[in-house]
Amino acid sequence: MDADISGMLIFSIYLNVMPNLTLRDMAKALGLSVSTVSKALRDSYEIGAETKKRVLDYAQANHYFPNRMAKSLKEGKSGSVGVVICSIDNNFVSRMLDGIDSACTKAGYDLIIMQSKESLSQEKSCIRQLEARGVEGVLISPSSETVDFAHLSDVRAMGMPVVLFDRIGDRFGSYQVGIDNRDGAFRATQHLIANGYKRIAMLNIGPGIHFAMQRSRGYADALEEHGIPYRDEYVHVCGPLAGEALKGAVTDAIRSLLALPEPPDALFTATDQLSTFSLRALHERGCRIPEDMALIGFCNTELAPILTPPLSTVYQPAFEIGRIAAEKLIGLITGKEHPDHYETVMLPIRLDVRESSRRKASASA
């Protein structure tokens, strides 16, 4: 992860608005001076840790946050934009954040970046925290658990613009920026078929995640177009999980595929991490790529050309996805974009064909 991206991470405690509670009320309840309470809320070095904890605990329990936050939320002029992503631990996400930062810096906006870790409850918490900080708008790549977008509808109903990026779909009406997920999966699977592979497996995440469903559809459509039967035993759903749990699920899936009486001769992986974890799992099992199993997947790692073997990928324009999504949000904030005339921007993918999916040796020329 780039240092400038990591430096943008800001984590905060959510304190809701309760305008009837004042600093004076808090000071009286805690037996402290108004000055002491104010300094504790500002994390002043003049106040001891124990007193700060008392004040912050009371503030949180009584849903209070400083008036400067309430003022910025009311006026909508905090000069900051909130970004909610699933996880920052992969190259694709950091490239999108780079694009977002480029557009926001140019327009004079600061970023507050938060991670949902593929959890709907944590995503909702992120949104509440961003509200509390008075952001002027929210960019969000929804978690894998997010199938109900009521929390985003509520935020927008209060006048805060929301733009979806990367993980787009038809369940929430808003400006959205991403790719044609069905087309990317279709082209990747078709590439394997054209290179002589017929027993093609797929690893995906889901179920119920719109972009993952579209990638599954593209895989199935390519098989059908070429008269290749869809085989349930060749399809594994790994998740929704993250980190070590996802790595373990991929390892189990690869083990199951290789143990089949008729194992697949090629594998399509539907996400960035599924691709790199699969490459590792195949190596660990002593599988030769592409001789024993060819591999192509969605993956934006800059290391793809120097992996062993060089990895064929479905490349997504991550920087442009982030940049355009941020520009749309800034347009909504400044009134240049109409809040009710939603637009979905679909950017083209690119197949980067490398050694991992070269033509099958037994295939006819």
UniProtKB/TrEMBL annotation:
UniProt keyword list: DNA-binding, Transcription, Transcription regulation
Protein name: LacI family transcriptional regulator
Residue ranges annotated for the HTH cro/C1-type domain, each copy included: 20-51
Keyword Protein transport recorded: no
Species of the source: Parapedobacter composti
Organism superkingdom: Bacteria
Xref: PROSITE patterns: HTH_CROC1 (PS50943), HTH_LACI_2 (PS50932)
GO function terms (MF aspect): DNA-binding transcription factor activity; transcription cis-regulatory region binding
Signal sequence annotation: none
Domain HTH lacI-type, residue spans: 21-75
Stored Pfam families: LacI, Peripla_BP_3
InterPro entries, alphabetized: Cro/C1-type_HTH, HTH_LacI, LacI/GalR-like_sensor, Lambda_DNA-bd_dom_sf, Peripla_BP_I
